[in-house]
Amino acid sequence: MYENHKNIRLDLYDNTQVVWRYMDFTKFLSLLEYKALFFCSCSSIKDMDPFEGEYPKKNLRKLQDKKQIIKLPSECSKKPWEYRKKFLENVCINCWHANDTENAAMWKVYLSSNDGIAIKSTIQNIKDAFNSNNQDVVFIGNINYNDYDFNDIEMNHNAYLQDIVDLTNEEKKSKKKFSDADILNKLAKHYYPLIMSKRKEFEYGKEIRLVSPIHQETKEKRVKNTGKFVSVDLDILIDEIIVSPSSQQWYVDLVKDVVKSYNLGNKKTYQSKIYEKFDK
Predict the structure, then answer these.
(1) How many CB atoms lie within 10 A of CB 217?
(2) Is residue 37 a contact partner of residue 230, using CB atoms and an 8 Å limit?
(3) In this structure, are strands 91-98 and 207-213 parallel, antiparallel, or unpaired?
(4) How far is C-alpha 217 from the geometric centre of its chain's CA atoms?
(5) What are the boundaries of each domain within the chain?
């Protein structure tokens, strides 16, 4: 179910904003077959962006300074990095592109061949599409793009480090090691801003990010350590289905037949015309 989270902001767009998800045929078929969106863990996409979930340089300097002021106990010195690693492993994301129209660059970025599909929806439709899912919590926000060399991400460094000290003291007192879920619940407010920020070099993506903690779901839905499937109402989620402008006609026909076979024949399905020849 969709929920609002104060540390995951949706402040650049309203609910009527058109959004797109570009994918290859196998991912599209997976969406239809499982009636679920695949959310990949933040730690599994480091090959796409090595800075995913990392601190900008300015935040790192501030953390080092605050550690000295707060006098972080020696047993806590590595905790900020250990807990952040756990967080990235246990929070999953699904990414959409905010744009009123198709984007030619997105077809090229997300497809490894000439063939693929784009799902057209709106932010409101995405929110509503999770209403029937009582097992997973889903947050939605827009990515903020920053210069990681000179700018920092807004976060309360003092409160963050103090929470780590408190966690460590609680573990000592109870003589029980906290689970990943416990850590996530206690420190998520400090880490969510990290995964809702990317370097300015990726600003072309105009990303709307769906976020879901992995501990909310059942083990059966988890796919190794790469992420999880989150059930969604396809009839609400999908406005239109657009086939790649570079696909041949047989591929377009195949997509249309598959869409009908999954009882989504009421959804407008057509091939993109962005490369259609200019007719004077």
Answers:
(1) 20
(2) yes
(3) antiparallel
(4) 16
(5) 18-271
